[in-house]
Write a structure and sequence with these properties.
70% helix; mainly alpha; 328 residues; 3 domains; 0% strand
């Protein structure tokens, strides 16, 4: 009997490791950008080898159907492993993995962010482009830039249920992206395919059919807060906490306003605060001074190391204005 129990842990652990490896390998190949960056927290972080470019993430309906089927199967297998062992550590690992798999499946099937949020696809795009800038292989940017049109074409195909608000946020983000691209010290021919692709995507957004409502059903919001974000509390608890923090912040603002301008409320006190006087250095000098103040605050409290300025010096410069044809 004791020998049988001692054999159970290695078997369960090996099974769980096999399921985890299969899931992570599959997700890493299917969503290489989302799994590469910690920007997309519903995806497991999987870093590919340096110089390995496995394409763009695939959010087409047929692929999402395959992904959700694979995730459902993995969730079932993990549940069986969790039931067959009494080892606490294995059960914890199994339940953690199952929660990640279930959360991603529900996000893809029920929240459907890829069908409603153009900013999501634009964030994937910017993440991939920014990563290629830091790659030692000079071909990285060229590969991403040349294949970007197909990714944004896919985004057009899957954005079938956009709220108007989300569409407008996407158009605003495109203007910001254009400004960022123009600030890069790159040849025009390196940027041309990217500009062309995002201009076509902007044209699509401007003419796309949208809906007026944008709120998720309350039951989905509650599941996101309680389970997907791991808060472990319901909407009423979150609402009560937020109201307590709002009330506390209101008291702090009232005290600060009274200290600055006695006898006035904090809103009136804010209006009375004089605008900063620019020094000879203008806005850039003002931003530099405030950035240095923030850095000193973070260093004093141990948030960042003291040698950070030397390791990563801060450069402040004005962004060039967005390309005007993105505002049509």
């Amino acid at each position: 009997m004791e020998d049988h129990q001692s054999d159970r842990r290695p078997r369960s652990k090996d099974k769980l490791n096999a399921v985890a490896k299969e899931v992570f390998d599959y997700l890493g190949k299917t969503f290489p950008v989302c799994c590469w960056s910690d920007e997309f927290h519903y995806f497991p972080q999987i870093i590919p080898p340096q110089g390995v470019w496995t394409g763009w993430d695939n959010f087409r309906p047929e692929n999402i159907a395959e992904v959700t089927a694979r995730l459902s199967s993995a969730e079932h297998d993990i549940g069986l492993i969790s039931q067959e062992t009494e080892d606490f550590d294995i059960v914890v690992d199994a339940e953690t993995l199952k929660r990640m798999v279930r959360t991603l499946r529900e996000q893809l099937v029920e929240v459907r962010f890829h069908e409603t949020q153009p900013t999501f696809h634009l964030t994937v795009m910017c993440t991939a482009l920014a990563a290629s800038l830091g790659d030692s292989d000079r071909r990285a940017w060229s590969i991403r830039a040349q294949t970007l049109p197909s990714f944004l074409k896919q985004a057009q195909e899957v954005l079938i249920d956009m709220p108007r608000l989300f569409r407008d946020l996407g158009l605003e983000m495109i203007c910001d992206i254009a400004a960022w691209l123009r600030s890069l010290e790159m040849e025009q021919n390196e940027l041309a395919p990217v500009f062309s692709a995002i201009e076509r995507f902007a044209d699509f957004l401007r003419s796309a059919r949208t809906r007026s409502d944008y709120l998720l059903p309350p039951e989905i919001v509650e599941r996101i807060v309680k389970e997907h974000l791991g808060c472990g509390v319901g909407l009423d608890d979150v609402r009560n906490t937020l109201m307590e923090e709002i009330d506390e912040m209101g008291r702090i603002m009232e005290e600060a306003g009274e200290a600055l301008f006695p006898g006035t409320g904090w809103r009136e006190a804010i209006r009375k605060i004089p605008l900063p006087v620019f020094s000879a250095g203008g806005q850039l000098e003002m931003y530099r001074k405030e950035a240095d103040n923030l850095l000193g605050h973070c260093i004093d409290r141990g948030i960042v190391p003291e040698d950070l300025p030397g390791i990563s010096p801060l450069r402040i410069s004005m962004l060039r204005p967005p390309i005007s044809y993105f505002k049509r």
